[in-house]
Specification:
The protein is mainly alpha-helical. The chain contains 4 helices and 2 strands; from the N terminus they run H-H-E-E-H-H. A hairpin with a 2-residue loop joins strand 1 (51-56) and strand 2.
Length: 100
């Protein structure tokens, strides 16, 4: 959604389908540090980012030009949408921001 590849409705439809199928969408183990390390390994081992990203329902595109700022924003968005709510939504956003 942030990169303009899918609409908010498509994002929500996909996340809701995954939830109905009981696919885990979030883990407290996935900190921003671990995420950044995984991205760095992806770049190193794939000769570039080469992220497969959704561009619609059932469609994807390989993207190579995602900025660090977009990655941070995506991590925060994912955390706010998918994390298990502990307390309030604001607390989750603060925890995600602190991870950055």
């Amino acid at each position: 959604e942030h990169l303009g590849l899918i609409s908010e409705a498509q994002r929500d439809r996909t996340l809701n389908m995954l939830r109905r199928c009981q696919v885990p969408l979030w883990s407290p183990v996935m900190t921003y540090e671990l995420f950044a390390e995984a991205v760095a390994n992806r770049v190193k081992n794939s000769m570039g980012q080469k992220f497969p990203l959704p561009v619609g329902i059932g469609e994807a595109r390989i993207v190579n030009d995602v900025s660090d700022e977009d990655l941070k924003s995506a991590f925060l968005k994912w955390t706010s949408l998918c994390s298990v709510k502990v307390g309030t939504e604001d607390a989750v956003e603060v925890q995600a921001a602190e991870a950055l």
